[in-house]
Amino acid sequence: MQNQNDQSRMDKIVSLAKRRGFIFQSSEIYGGLNGFWDYGPLGVALKRNLKDAWWHDMVSGHDELATLAGAPAPYEMTGLDCTIIMHPQVWKCSGHFDLFHDWMIDCRESKRRYRYDHLHGRWAAHRGKKVFVTTDASGDEAAPETVARAQKFFGLRAKQIDEIEWGGGLESLQQAIAAGAATLADTLGPDATAPGTLTEPREFNLMFETRIGALAGDDDDRAFLRPETAQGIFVNFKNVLDTSRVRVPFGIAQVGKSFRNEITPRNFTFRSREFEQMEIEFFCPPAASAEWYRYWRDRRWRWYLDLGLTEGKLQLREHAADELSHYSVGTADIEYAFPFLGPGEFGELEGIAHRGDFDLRSHMEGKLVRQDGALVLETGADGKPRHKGSGKDLSYFDDITRERYVPHVIEPSAGADRATLAFLCDAYHEDEVPDEDGKPRSRTVMKLHPRLAPVKAAILPLVKKDGMPEVAIELYRKLKPHMACQYDEKGSVGRRYARQDEAGTPWCLTIDGQTLTDRTITLRDRDSLVQERLPLDEVVDMLRDRLR
Ligand code: ATP
Questions:
Q1: Which of 57, 146, 287, 396 is the most exposed place for a label (fewest CB within 10 A)?
Q2: What pLDDT shows up at residue 1?
């Protein structure tokens, strides 16, 4: 069960995100749209800094001449920006058209729809009447919710709650039904007043559909918004090989929007219907693929730590053999202990998958299935391929070893919104600082890594007179070309510090009376609160160094 403090911590983070302009609900003035989120002035800067850090560290700043620690060899990195709507055959061959679904269940009474695997329940009995009470609440809200629902169902007063007999703890409805421990006829749906109103579970494809062209009507015009950015990379593999000088091993990176019609979006931006991904498809020789898989798993793990996520809240989880997709040779998830989860629970930030030659072969041959341990073309009753591939040769010829092969793929696939949320949650702190009179004042501070912080420095004239604003503006103009900074002269210095602490600004630069005589300023560090006296003319270079 979830910890009460963590839920209130999450509530505070969501409220700060709204109040300070990190994240707003989409279309809020019309009541909002479930599963869609907008980034406000601070949020857009934070998310952009995160994506820029990823692109810089993985692609533009990559040293392709060096053998990086843990890598089997030097390698090249390049990028792509593909369309959101692609040829429908892409999704048929990749398997998304047939297989990218969740199980949903409807309630005939409340008309509400739930993800089957999100429903939990337990048996409740009172005076010979028995019902399997369910809820779609998660964390520590789930158990009290079933108590309240059972009380209402049996028509009991609060003081009669102890008369309810419970048959065990909460369990997944899906598992209870599979094990024969409950039936839909006995199940009280999460918003129903009588049992037996839930429908049989049905598959629901998560891809958003659209139509192409003004006269769209028949099935051939059906197209899909991409549910991942990866496929754009696979179908351009040959274009990249033919037009750039890259040689295997190399990686292609892409950052962009993906869309999934999630049945129950929840937990703030964690499960959204429109989100951004940062994906790499890394192509390598089959013989070295296991080593490359380990390299990318460890490299991506370190990236989150280097940007300051608390190690104790991160987990690297290798999937067990029965959890792997039919094509995957190995997969690891990087997970974070989000405050909206229960103790010991983690949510996925990024998956690193060894995908073998599944993707390139699928786009050459057509949709593949696993049969007797091997990937083979799926055929219909007529013996023809179920979904025909492009027929293009996507193999690679290594002109040094004189070998031809279909490269294997390692895929580190990260979510920009989930990572932004993890950094926001991790950065949120409450502590006490002395105010101008030395009295303790509680503060909320976002301890974001300087590379991620929306604003790097705030320039504050102590008072709005005596020539201080002029000196401050001069410094602001010198710093601005190098980093995002703000000039603020409104209110007491204490209030200005507090505003910057909440925005996550790592450095406040104060121009005071002493500046006017000796051209030094004070730099206040957001986290340590240490104040240093620095020469005004050297501050720009010093901050640029610190940011590096
Ligand atoms: P989950 O099991 O949580 O639905 P997944 O395993 O389906 O995630 P992938 O298909 O591996 O996710 O997608 C790669 C990354 O894209 C995820 O690690 C996550 O960061 C991000 N992502 C996937 N679905 C969503 C979503 N609905 N909202 C926000 N980010 C998402």
A1: 287
A2: 43
